[in-house]
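Troubleshooting log. The previous structure file for this entry was overwritten by mistake, so regenerating from the original sequence record. Sequence copied from the archived sheet and checked twice against the printout by T.R.
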Amino acid sequence: MTTDPAAAGPVDGVPDGVTVVPLRGIGDVRTGDDLATLLLAACERDGYRAGDDDVLVVSSKVLAKALGLWRADRDTAVLEESRGVVAERRTPNGVTRIVRAAAGPVMAAAGVDASNTGPEAEGRVLVLPHDPDAQAARLRAALTERTGSRPAVLLTDTSGRPWRVGQTDFALGCAGLTPTDDLRGGVDADGSPLQVTVRAVADELAAAAELVKGKADGVPAALVRGCGHLVTGDDGPGAAGLVRFDSADWFATGTVESVRAALGCPPGTPDVEPAPAAPDGDLDAVLRRAVAVVRRGLVGEPDLAGVQVRLVEVEPLRGAGQGVEVVGGVGVEVIGEVVAAARVAERVAVCARAERLATVVRAQDGPGTTDPGLVTLHVRPA
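Regenerated output below.
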């Protein structure tokens, strides 16, 4: 792959390999601007004409600016643009939420953006279009109307990824582009059958284009050549099919959030503090969160309605200094109290373990104690 504009070859030719060139000089995009006109002017300025085999890669941010997708308050915008919380963590800068965005993908803060938004922002934030594929199709139609050519259009945004450090651009929406290259049913170089390989070529093109666009250089678009085999006459399925939903999504919630949901306290529950982004060693805080989650989940469970959960200082046990007392419901037979208390204590333990905290559960003797249904939960750092 080359990123040198001079190496792009003839305007109407298809060079060997893949060529990615930046489209400079677009300038600051404002509400109501004709984005198709701005893109074509940038192509002409650099001596290119977007042809039928080309792919125009455009940052969703400039599209959002042209559409005037401004919101006054970031926190409100994140809430309105979220369709479900995947994970939430407390950081020194506040609470970060990974959510399923109204635009489709799972993203931090639903893709709400306050960076590089230009002078029109005036303290406001940008949100993503709710139907990126439809917006890509509209932009493609506008380009075709002006030139007679039908280049593919790829709208991109930036996101982090599970298990990987850093961010990369991905396909938010596309039109006229085959988003995946399904190799299943073929064979590899050794002749072995390919059973699972589906290349996310739209994401690959988005990431490649980002190499020449750049966040700080004011270059929101790029022209990709050499991928004509991926360009289609019709608008195609778009990028929505790249998002996994429902049973296909193995990672619908984070570790802590999955445990909390199982205890009756799903992600985004008000008044329940998110876990920290990194373990901070504050065992008291971990226990406070665990107790809050369990208390919330106990609402509506009549068989455990009388169980009390309270934070206490307990006698150290094998290095464990913080603890929780769980007391069975009054008026229940002793064995019933112990069982009920033990069930609730284990919930607290599970919730604490989800934050990587080691726990030890010890049941006190039943008859003859001050609280016959008492279970004390001891904790220690992992």
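The chain has a mean pLDDT of 83. Archived copy saved in two places this time.
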